Amino acid sequence: MAESKSKIQSVREWVVDNKLRTVGCLWLSGIVGSIAYNWSQPGMKTSVRIIHARLHAQALTLASLVGAAAVEYWDNRGAPKAERYPEFLHANPLSRKD
Questions:
Q1: Cβ(61)–Cβ(26) under 8 Å?
Q2: pLDDT digits (tens, 9 = 90+) for 27-44
Q3: CA–CA gap between residue 78 and residue 89 (Å, rounded)
Q4: Are 34 and 57 in contact (CB under 8 A)?
Q5: Which one-letter DSSP state was computed for residue 89?
Q6: Residue 13 dihedral angles phi and psi, to the nearest 5°
Q7: How many CA atoms lie less than 13 Å away from 36 in the CB half-sphere?
Q8: Which of 5, 26, 50, 69 meets the CB 3.0–4.6 Å disulfide criterion with 64?
Q9: Which of 58, 61, 53, 52 is nearest to 23 (CA)?
């Protein structure tokens, strides 16, 4: 019988398959969390709160992009060279016979 995947393995596979969606979700949650945190701080102007939220979200986005690059590198580290590139890069558009 096949063993069932652990929760961590399932999440990891989803992240590998949906890298951009993961980065977007992290960015959105970073904006929402930062705005919620900044709104709880008294004595700040609204424009400063929004700027701080944007800066926090940018930092989180960069961190998640680095994480996605690390996952991509880790997955392709042991793969043969032909499997490291997407399939559409191997296709020769001049050899099509339509």
A1: yes
A2: 788 888 888 888 888 888
A3: 20
A4: yes
A5: G
A6: -65, -40
A7: 6
A8: 26
A9: 61
At position 89, the amino acid (one-letter code) is L
Please state the domain extents for the chain.
Answer: 3-78
Amino acid present at 67: G
- What single string gives the DSSP state of each residue in 27-67? HHHHHHHHHHHHHTSTT--HHHHHHHHHHHHHHHHHHHHHH
Query: What is the helix, strand, coil percentage profile of the chain, to 5?
Result: 75, 0, 25
Using a cut of 0.70, tell me whether the model's pTM lies above it: no
Give the separation between CA 24 and CA 1, rounded to whole angstroms: 37
Instruction: Quote the CA–CA distance of 73 and 7 in Å, as a whole number.
Output: 22
Cβ atoms of 34 and 52 within 8 Å: the answer is yes
The answer to whether 31 touches 54, Cβ cutoff 8 Å, is yes
